[in-house]
Write a sequence for this structure.
């Protein structure tokens, strides 16, 4: 059985937690890369990396149970 086949046979909860761990890692690495790009004055690259980091953050937040999600401030006053 290959690694990919064995991953398909594991519990969905294990796969979800593994996915969350990978996304957390990607989010952290993108933050570090953005900082490095900013230090090198690579503004466009820093911006694009930050957009990727924001995307991963949104995916992570969308996967949280509703009771755990941070509340967004209301636009209406």
């Amino acid at each position: 059985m290959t690694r990919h086949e064995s991953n398909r046979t594991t519990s969905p909860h294990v796969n979800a937690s593994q996915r969350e761990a990978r996304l957390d890692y990607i989010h952290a690495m993108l933050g570090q890369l953005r900082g490095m790009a900013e230090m090198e004055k690579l503004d466009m690259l820093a911006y694009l990396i930050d957009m990727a980091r924001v995307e991963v953050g949104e995916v992570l937040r969308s996967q949280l149970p509703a009771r755990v999600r941070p509340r967004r401030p209301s636009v209406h006053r």
In short: The mean pLDDT is 82. Residues 15-62 form one domain. The chain has three helices and no strands. Helices lie at 3-8, 12-39, 43-63.
